[in-house]
């Protein structure tokens, strides 16, 4: 383990967290909400002190790393990011209990959008802004951001370990030959689509503050609303813009890169994209048929069902209507979508469409091999063979996913809520969605859970966002040994 | 520049890492996913798995936008095809590794069809390097700069020789030839010395001198410059054949030992004037009975690094004046040179260097200013050739006055002006359109001449 590399990168993460708090601080200052100003200032000072110390110790010398350092930096970095990010809520006194503040912050950074707040509008605007902005930071990833900015040793490919550990998907690769260009391209695409969404929302007549918070909420596929009524508080225009924005942010960003580099044909041939769109349309038809009678007109039904599906499959978690009141079939289709999640390489969570595809294809292969033992099969994605190692990785990932789901549900069941609440709360957290069913449905929240459950669910959100292994490795003693 | 490297064997990976370190955008193509995975973890490059001669793969790699494609797979035919396809897709320049000399005529015949900007034969490149070394056996390495006018050579200071204990500013008293010692390696540490530096025995030094005056310089310093008349080559590889041909053209007697009978027959057929022996050249008795003691140089060119090393060590032990060792795995070069194996050639490094040089020249056409580069002292020191830009604020000022503005760890090693070579002293200065050689340790990043003179305006 090269502690120097770990200190160096974590130092940079914390420094940038302090810088990224600035807009929220300015808003709090403008609103003269001194509690929040205090909270931000103290946190920023702490962050700067900690990062200066880490960078002072880690600045010089050798920052070389292996896969292990990559995992540890990402896992530890996110935990620290959340701990510090929770401080403004706590210090300002607007979320009086630290566990609650932490839950809210983890939920923000992991783009979950699960809230413990019963009265969202009770928070001051500075804190609301920070709460939504964490979605945007966490959506594309804080290390991707750091890699785009800090000086890297030229020509070395070791930062690949960081990209691999933080970015979602079964097989992470660079879109452009160098790391610097890759991360900058990703962020450029991210910023541009976010800005377009923001402008469209402003043009629709929403206040700029609301538009920004909703735009970043959709961009990170997070789902924190800043109104008690969620997105239901806005008009149809806003809801439609957000539906499409969420859908776009659930697409693999390399598709946009290909379009930018005039390879649109290759981009549109992406198998995962076909399935992603196909599943959205399929679910739309089924759900509209199933919920038609709940809405006054077919147009209304399509509008709200489309919004809900986009919100759930991209794991955003915005809501316009209470889907908890929908028929059972619709609810369970939504739960299945929660499991699946968005595309690899997007800002969305869940298991990812491409993993499900690989899983189903390898299942098919297994059946074919059992029927005809001599036949040879491979898993193909985008007409290319998927490496055996990748397929195995997907199997292990799914196994770990359900394992963590089961263990977490066991802990949460201590709170003695009904089964649907228990299970869907864990699914909603590990898939980074936010709302589940029953008590944690779109109109509910997580306030009633015990501290233990909140901590377990916070961990689940981190497990889900970082795709399990970086977090899991933090608990392995061997990861911390010098030469283990 | 945007460069595609096809084939990630020995040469391919070396090339990728060097070009990547120079800040080019690299896409590498290979058909072994394991190699690519490893590569992606060590280098900041994009990788693509597939056949590098297939149009679909090249298209995906971005051949349409590429400035250069370098094909260095094992197969000559694949490389040629890859270059042709890339060219058709829109790649601006292509470099192919073509090792089979039988294709030489094809290359000439089909020059326009292949569209190859440069074809490289690693074995021939290596053979030429060995030949150059043998012409001045006292040098561990020789390189020419400034259109072959300046020589940059590397040698070891023999304990007790005239150089041992010499203060560098006194060098001019020993010889009238102009020479400048530009880097010294002592116990693994490299220094760029100034005039007060004192040499010690066993220092490894590199110096620049005028090509024409090198022989006299060596003579003035009392360094033996024995002519090589008899060479023994162990291992009848392709390199051996190329070297033997070059040597014979210069009337050197060549003996080649190989233990493969069929190969020996073929060698006899190809090299009628050489003595071909069939036997195991790594055995002491074979070497001794074939008169290794009386040869002027032993070239260890078998396919195995270990065998080559043992042969060279044995030859050193017998005090054969010069040994040259071929090494493929280059990660231990420093260890070998500490063990007394001084002159090492590595086809992969030589090939990669030659290609990198070409890429740099391409860059200089497109506005970057480095014209040539070579590495010394196991890659710890770089010598770079630049043209002095017309508007530079450091020209027309004697070096003596420039001292405060020049980086201390760099050295102006030679200047070419109007077909004249100047080995600079404090009174010289740079003029517009001069070409200069700069020597600096590798960790000092110099990409333009202005990096050497970072001080502001005077």
Short description:
The complex is a heterodimer of chains A (484) and B (458). Chain A is mainly alpha-helical and 484 residues long.
Can you walk through the features of this model?
The complex is a heterodimer of chains A (484) and B (458). Chain A is mainly alpha-helical and 484 residues long. Chain A has helices at 3-20, 22-30, 34-58, 67-92, 98-109, 125-140, 142-149, 160-166, 179-203, 208-219, 236-249, 253-260, 264-268, 271-291, 298-313, 328-340, 353-371, 388-412, 419-430, 451-465, 469-474, and strands at residues 380-381, 384-385. In chain A, strands 1-2 form a two-stranded antiparallel sheet. In chain A, a hairpin with a 2-residue loop joins β1 (380-381) and β2 (384-385). The longest helix of chain A has 26 residues, at 67-92. By secondary structure, chain B is of the alpha/beta class. Chain B has four domains: 2-120, 3-Layer(aba) Sandwich (Rossmann fold); 127-220, Regulator of K+ conductance, C-terminal domain (Alpha-Beta Plaits); 230-349, 3-Layer(aba) Sandwich (Rossmann fold); 355-451, Regulator of K+ conductance, C-terminal domain (Alpha-Beta Plaits, 2-Layer Sandwich), CATH 3.30.70. In chain B, α7 crosses α10. The mean pLDDT of chain B is 83. At the A-B interface, α9 of A face α1, β2 and α2 of B.
Strand portion of chain A: under 5%
Largest sheet of chain A: 2 strands, antiparallel
The total strand number of chain B stands at 22
Strand elements of chain A, count = 2
User: What's the pLDDT, averaged over the residues of chain A?
Assistant: 90
Descriptive terms for the model:
heterodimer; A: about 475 residues; mainly alpha; 2 strands; globular; B: about 450 residues; alpha/beta; Rossmann fold; Alpha-Beta Plaits; six-stranded parallel sheet; about 25% strand
């Amino acid at each position: 383990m090269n502690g120097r590399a770990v200190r160096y990168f974590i130092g940079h993460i914390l420094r940038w967290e302090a810088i990224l708090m600035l807009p929220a601080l300015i808003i709090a200052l403008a609103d003269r909400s001194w509690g929040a100003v205090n909270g931000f200032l103290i946190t920023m000072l702490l962050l700067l002190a900690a990062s200066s110390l880490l960078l002072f110790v880690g600045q010089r010398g050798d920052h070389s790393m292996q896969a292990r350092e990559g995992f540890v930096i990402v896992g530890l970095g996110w935990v620290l990011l959340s701990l510090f990010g929770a401080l403004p809520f706590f210090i300002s006194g607007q979320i009086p209990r630290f566990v609650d503040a932490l839950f809210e912050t983890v939920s923000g950074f992991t783009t979950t959008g699960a809230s413990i707040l019963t009265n969202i509008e009770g928070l001051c605007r500075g804190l609301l802004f920070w709460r939504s902005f964490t979605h945007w930071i966490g959506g594309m990833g804080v290390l991707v951001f750091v890699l785009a900015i800090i000086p890297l040793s030229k020509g070395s490919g070791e930062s690949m370990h960081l990209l691999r550990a933080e970015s979602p998907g079964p097989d992470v690769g660079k879109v452009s030959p160098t790391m610097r260009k890759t991360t900058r391209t990703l962020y450029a695409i991210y910023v541009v689509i976010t800005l377009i969404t923001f402008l469209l929302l402003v043009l629709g007549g929403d206040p700029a503050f609301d538009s920004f918070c909703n735009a970043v909420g959709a961009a990170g596929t997070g789902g924190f609303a800043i109104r008690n009524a969620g997105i239901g508080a806005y008009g149809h225009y806003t809801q439609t813009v957000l539906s499409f924005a969420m859908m776009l942010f659930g697409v693999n960003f390399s598709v946009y890169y290909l379009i930018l580099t005039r390879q649109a044909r290759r981009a549109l041939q992406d198998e995962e994209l076909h399935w992603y769109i196909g599943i959205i349309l399929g679910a739309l038809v089924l759900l509209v048929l199933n919920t038609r009678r709940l809405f006054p007109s077919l147009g209304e039904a399509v509008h709200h069902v489309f919004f809900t599906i986009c919100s759930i499959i991209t794991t955003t978690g915005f809501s316009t209507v209470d889907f908890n009141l929908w028929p059972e079939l619709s609810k369970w289709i939504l739960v299945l979508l929660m499991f699946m999640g968005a595309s690899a390489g997007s800002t969305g969570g869940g298991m990812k469409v491409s993993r499900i595809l690989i899983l189903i294809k390898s299942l098919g292969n297994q059946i074919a091999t059992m029927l005809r033992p001599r036949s040879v099969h491979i898993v193909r994605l985008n007409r290319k063979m998927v490496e055996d190692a990748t397929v195995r990785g997907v199997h292990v990932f799914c196994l770990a996913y359900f394992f963590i789901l089961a263990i977490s549900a066991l802990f949460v069941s201590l709170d003695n809520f009904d089964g649907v609440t228990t299970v869907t709360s864990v699914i909603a957290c590990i898939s980074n969605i936010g709302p589940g069913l029953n008590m944690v449905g779109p109109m509910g929240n997580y306030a009633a859970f015990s501290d233990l459950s909140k901590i377990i669910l916070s961990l689940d959100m981190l497990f889900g966002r970082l795709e399990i292994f970086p977090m899991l490795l933090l608990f392995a003693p061997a990861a911390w040994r010098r030469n283990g | 520049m945007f460069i595609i490297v096809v084939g990630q064997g020995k040469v391919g990976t070396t090339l990728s890492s060097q070009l990547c370190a120079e800040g080019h955008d690299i896409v590498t193509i290979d058909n072994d996913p394991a190699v690519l995975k490893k590569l992606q973890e060590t280098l900041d490059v994009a990788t693509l798995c597939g056949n590098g001669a297939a149009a679909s793969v090249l298209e995906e790699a971005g051949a349409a936008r590429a400035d250069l494609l370098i094909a260095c797979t094992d197969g000559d035919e694949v490389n040629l095809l890859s270059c042709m396809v890339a060219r058709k897709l829109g790649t601006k320049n292509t470099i192919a590794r073509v090792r089979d000399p039988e294709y030489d005529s094809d290359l000439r015949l089909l020059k326009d069809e292949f569209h190859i900007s440069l074809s490289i034969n690693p074995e021939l490149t290596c053979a030429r390097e060995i030949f150059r070394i043998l012409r001045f056996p006292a040098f561990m390495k020789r390189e020419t700069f400034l259109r072959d006018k300046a020589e940059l050579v590397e040698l070891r200071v023999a304990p007790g020789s005239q150089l041992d204990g010499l203060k560098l500013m006194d060098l001019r008293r020993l010889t009238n030839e102009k020479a400048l010692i530009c880097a010294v390696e002592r116990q693994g540490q490299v220094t760029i010395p100034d005039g007060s530096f004192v040499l010690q025995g066993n220092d490894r030094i590199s110096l620049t001198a005028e090509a024409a005056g090198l022989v006299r310089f060596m003579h003035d310093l009392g360094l033996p410059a024995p002519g090589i008349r008899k060479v023994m080559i162990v291992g009848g590889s392709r390199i051996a054949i190329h070297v033997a041909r070059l040597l014979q053209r210069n009337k050197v007697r060549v003996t080649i030992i190989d233990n493969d009978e069929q190969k020996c027959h073929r060698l006899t057929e190809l090299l009628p004037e050489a003595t071909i022996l069939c036997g195991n050249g790594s055995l002491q008795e074979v070497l001794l009975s074939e008169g290794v003691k009386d040869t002027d140089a032993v070239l260890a060119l078998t396919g195995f690094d270990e065998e080559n090393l043992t042969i060279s060590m044995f030859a050193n032990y017998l005090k054969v004046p010069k040994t040259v060792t071929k090494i493929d795995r280059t990660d231990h070069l420093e260890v070998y040179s500490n063990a007394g194996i001084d002159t090492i050639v590595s086809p992969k490094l030589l090939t990669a260097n030659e290609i990198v040089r070409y890429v740099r020249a391409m860059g200089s056409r497109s506005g970057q200013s480095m014209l040539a580069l070579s590495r010394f002292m196991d890659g710890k020191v770089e010598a770079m050739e630049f043209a002095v830009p017309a508007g530079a604020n450091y020209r027309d000022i004697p070096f003596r006055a420039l001292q405060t503005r020049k980086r201390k760890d760099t050295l102006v090693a030679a200047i070419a002006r109007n077909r004249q070579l100047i080995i600079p002293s404090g009174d010289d200065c740079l003029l517009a359109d001069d070409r200069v050689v700069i020597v600096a340790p590798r960790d000092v990043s110099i990409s333009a001449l202005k990096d050497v003179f970072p001080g502001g305006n005077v």
